[in-house]
Amino acid sequence: CNGGVKMAPQNGGGCSGEDDKDAKHMFDRIGKKVHDEIVKKDDADAKKYIKELKGSLSLASIFVEERVSSPDPCNLKNEYTELINGSGSGGSGGSGSSVAAGTVARGDPCKKDGTGNDVDRFSVKQQAEYDNKKMKCSYGSNDKNEGACASFRRLHLCNKNFPNMNSNDSSKAKHDLLVDVCMAANYEAQSLIRYHDKYKQSNEDSKICTMLARSFADIGDIVRGKDLYLGNKKKNQNGKETEREKLEQKLKEIFGKIHEELIKYKTNSALQARYNGDKENFYQLREDWWTANRSTIWEAITCNDDKKLRDASYFHATCSDGNSQSQATKQCRCEKKGGGDVNIVPTYFDYVPQYLRWFEEWAEDFCRKKKKYVDIVKTYCRGEYKEGKDRYCSRNGYDCEQTVNARGKLRMGKQCISCLYACNPYVDWINNQKEQFDKQKKKYDKEIKKYEKGAVGGGGDSRRQTRDARGGSDHKGYEKIFYEEFKRNGDYGDVNKFLEKLSNEDVCTKVDDKGGRINFKNVNSGKHSGGGESGDRGKGASADGNSNKTFYHSDYCQPCPPCGVKRESDNWEPKEEDDKCKNIKLYTPNEGVKPTDINFLYSGEGETEIKEKLNKFCDQTSGSSGGGSDSQKLYQKWQCYKHNEVHKVGQDDDDYDDDKYVEKGGGLCILPNPKKKEESEAKSQNEPDQFQKTFYDFFYYWVAHMLKDSVHWRIKKLDKCLKNGTKIICKKGCHGKCDCFQRWVKQKKRTRMGQNKRTISQARY
């Protein structure tokens, strides 16, 4: 249980939930119990039928038997290559070909589509699509998110050959299926191993054997009809079926032939009793076939042709020789010191419900990315910027040594704009992660209840819930055994007990307090509880009410303290909030000076605020609405002056060189604080009368928001509307969005030129 190299064999109850180091260790502990219940017990049902369902690669009808080089799935490289291309439409496989006549071309298991292009599974582009589109979460028949979120690894699993499987001989269907599953497993491993070294550079905790175990379990769920990932939900060109429906139909076709062969001869009454009623989806048969063939499939996913798995070890001790347990330290395989498939396969993830596996993988991925993000924002918001000097920047790009929010003094500098660029994607990402966490957490109780005897939830009948749990079948399979053990031997019926184990993952313990220490247990499920989106106005993002900082924006992506900060020894300390800090007015325009008015279309800070305000902009600038006073509420009305058109009316100790800063900054821009009018008198007293920043700071701020809004337009609003070509065109049905984007661009151009063609830069020179 503790992951040592050798340990005494576990009999009876094994470890308790308290002994599980983390969720992965718990998965293998309970998964082993499920496996043993199904296979190893003297009266275990699946054990009785392994011989009838065990496949042999050399006996497959899709190969010419005498031309198959080896029954070892790792020695079929040439055969796999030939199978990808098939034997043509009914023609022979050709002299010397291993592929039998009439074998359908499978296609490359790893191709994303039929174009022949490889998918760079861990590219920045693929990762961005995964994070931004929320494409990973499964949906029910009513198109509502069910809370099971597939991992980045799962999105491009190498099983694209499955929909093209065929078997022309029911007596050999079990062998033919094994060929296709082994080919998928082998190509999946090649894909993961190829990218693992690059992936590991930024994810040092990534273990290749664990990644292979996860894909192995996902392939098992596909074969058994339990996969939660629906893929592309659009109908194919025939308009009749989705990708998932086509795959499921093909698997039922193959298992139908295996079923036909099993019940053909009525001499085995036990076989008749077990499979005769299993005719619609063949779930029992599919589960038994996987149990019988998992060892061969694990061999296929752990081939070591290029020696990259030579020293690859599973993360803890699971192998057994009957007397003790040891760790798989070579090629992700046990050493076959005992009997049975467990002495090849070190993992039991394939006996853990997919929802739980995905939740654990999601948590590990979250922790790894959060650590990476926190390191980035720490560098750009606190790191040395020039000549070894430290800086303290806010998430909105302000220098907190010079900025005094309490009286509206806003100062950029020290390249603090880099902090804004670093924090914006991080804040959007972690808010999105919070939503995904809430959905998965909410699903926990419902998922367990699906497999309880006579479970009734949400007013629905238990029969319907059971069918939902198994895609329309009353067969519950290994999940039922797992969840019973899950609750009984570990007390994981309480979601917080499970979340505690997720928090114990090694990578999740590496984020410190300033980044927001990770503890999934007792996370507040309120919207964006990790912090607000208000930027530098107010107190900004904070932890949950119970001080849980799992989804905290970090100390680095916060607004400046009200009165700024000062350096004391090696630490930054907030300045005292006294009257001197709050009541000094910096600059006021000279009498009779006419400012340059700039209407800044301000869409806010966070993703939610940007979305709401851009939608309002579209509504209020459409031809039907005609604009009006409401549209003006979307703008900040700044008034800008040359440096010699304003004069200082007060200063504190840190304002001694402010005149030079304003002069070198191209002048001064002033925004009356709308919150002075909008908020109650008590709250309004804590707000400055106005905000002041130099023209250059204002310009950089405008550019930063324009770029941020542009990203939102491209990723969130226009992603599915633009068609690339010699000329980018707007797709049918998207003209409302495209027209609004053009209006937004025109407005930005007008702001850039300045009203009445009089900008501050023109006035200055």
From TrEMBL:
It comes from the Eukaryota. Residues 108-125, 461-474 have a biased composition (Basic and acidic residues). Residues 147-357 form the Duffy-antigen binding domain. GO terms for molecular function: host cell surface receptor binding. Residues 1-21, 87-125, 454-474, 519-545 are annotated as: Disordered. Residues 22-61 form the Plasmodium falciparum erythrocyte membrane protein-1 N-terminal segment domain. Residues 596-645 form the PfEMP1 CIDRalpha1 domain. SUPFAM superfamilies: Duffy binding domain-like. Residues 87-96 have a biased composition (Gly residues). It holds the Pfam family Duffy_binding. Residues 361-524, 698-750 form the Duffy-binding-like domain. One of its GO terms (cellular component) is membrane. This is EMP1 protein. It comes from Plasmodium falciparum (malaria parasite P. falciparum).
